[in-house]
Amino acid sequence: MDFGLNFFPVFTPDHKPASQFYREAIALSQIAEEYGFEHVQTVEHYGTPYGGYSPDPVTLLSAIAARTKTIRVASGAVIPAFTHPLQLASKLAMLDNISDGRLDVGFGRAWLPQEFEWLGVSIDESRRRFSEGIEACRRLWSEEDVVFEGEFHSFGPVTLSPRPVQQSGPPVFVASASSPESCAAAGKAGYHLQVVPTIVSHETVVEMLAAYRKAWVEAGHAKGAARIQLKYNCYLSEDRDEALRRGEEMENNHVELMSEAAAGWLRTSSDQYKGYDKLVDKAREYDFGKALSAGKILAGNPDDVIGQLDASRASYGDDLCISIQVNSGYTEYRDAERSLRLFAEKVAPLFKPRER
């Protein structure tokens, strides 16, 4: 197992200034690098307290890259549907240069209806825009005099400037919410994978990863080269009761703000997002204890979290990178730093890193 650090801001402006959250993210990233973490990543969302404090992952990741030397910086994820591919490929190539070739690019479809409305993009086009955007970025990173003719964008001939540091461009990850079919498509294409076990059942995650690994092998990609990131919220303390109390408070805040952001599905429907109309009802049924028992979060003292990771490894495989969130912005910085240091010193050493 490898380990990374994930920043998904979920807080209201009265709780913490945005500038403070960014400073905390940079400081925690530097600590994670000191402990040998594999990556740091952040999301792309707009206009609500649910992720909206990270409208441009490239900006925050550039600040982190400028203050670190070895840790990889990753988008988790950027949204091709919301940006012209020439712009997106260019700014990601710029970040690859700033980080001296430490960039991993996770691409996602987005799922909040109001974001599509605000940006003037049809939600029913999300999958096609997603696929087209990845194709265009990859060509721009690896080819010269690119002429691109897509459904949504046509341009060229153009040679990207700056060129990425990494040959043929940064590694590509696909963020998959719940679909084994999308995981299989990612594996067939040779893309790496980002999954959030919190939002789906244990059985679905097993099915998603099995479909991905099977498609990867059948497509003839190099054995052992696939990279799979699983993202967990993590609440850690030497005092189990304190960690669980704090974890429940943080999770309830997360679910409340997610429910408010997801309320757009009460007036929206799309055959590209089956079942999303039930998200608000599912969120209202959330129970911290049940989520903890089901292995959807990491919480407790170091021994508890070691056991939870052992269970995750037994269920999902040992070829994983676990990306933990210790600071959602709702968290006090001292608690986030303490969780990170405890994890790095007492949990991570018991899990052998992947061979790279």
TrEMBL record:
The residues covered by the Luciferase-like domain are 1-316
Q: What is this protein called?
A: LLM class flavin-dependent oxidoreductase
User: Where does the record locate the signal sequence feature?
Assistant: none
Q: Which organism is it from?
A: Streptomyces sirii
Entries under InterPro entries matching the protein: Bact_Lucif_Oxidored (IPR050766), Luciferase-like_dom (IPR011251), Luciferase-like_sf (IPR036661)
Entry EC number(s): 1.-.-.-
Keyword annotations: Oxidoreductase
Tell me the GO molecular function terms.
oxidoreductase activity
